[in-house]
Recover the amino acids of this structure.
């Protein structure tokens, strides 16, 4: 019984799992200790085959403080995955979006929300602020497709 995890490591990111019974998603719990507790609980209840975490880098005009905080979150998530022994891969937004989102132009956050709503109607994605949960669901989808040999 394989399960696939997706993690958007941003401060407004999310965590999602696709498992044999369906899918679940959570917003970033607010601090890394709560994030570790969440990931441990997920790990205890599911056989995670692969976790996919979005690779981060600095962006033009992004402040030094926010870039540093983003990098800290990313490193903390990697540490939690390693400590729990969860197999994982990092992926750029461009790569998973190209593989999972419908072809199109425009706001990738809106496209991500729309796609996740179609694929996972059981997951509550009511608000624009749920885009981190949607991204996490789609990264988990990428990991699942990669595992089963779908073209990604």
């Amino acid at each position: 019984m394989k399960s696939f995890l997706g993690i958007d490591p941003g401060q407004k990111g999310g965590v999602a799992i696709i498992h044999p019974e369906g899918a679940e998603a959570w917003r970033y719990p607010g601090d890394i200790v709560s994030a570790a507790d969440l990931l441990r609980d997920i790990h205890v209840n599911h056989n995670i085959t692969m976790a996919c975490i979005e690779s981060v880098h600095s962006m033009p005009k992004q402040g030094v403080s926010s870039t540093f905080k983003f990098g800290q979150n990313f490193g903390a998530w990697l540490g939690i995955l390693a400590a729990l022994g969860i197999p994982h891969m990092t992926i750029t937004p461009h790569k998973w979006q190209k593989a999972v989102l419908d072809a199109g132009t425009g706001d990738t956050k809106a496209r991500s929300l729309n796609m996740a709503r179609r694929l996972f109607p059981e997951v509550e994605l009511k608000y624009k602020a749920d885009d981190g949960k949607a991204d996490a669901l789609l990264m988990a989808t990428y990991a699942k497709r990669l595992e089963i040999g779908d073209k990604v």
User: Anything to note?
Assistant: The chain has a mean pLDDT of 88. The first strand starts at residue 3 and ends at 8. Helices lie at 32-45, 64-84, 93-100, 108-119, 131-148.
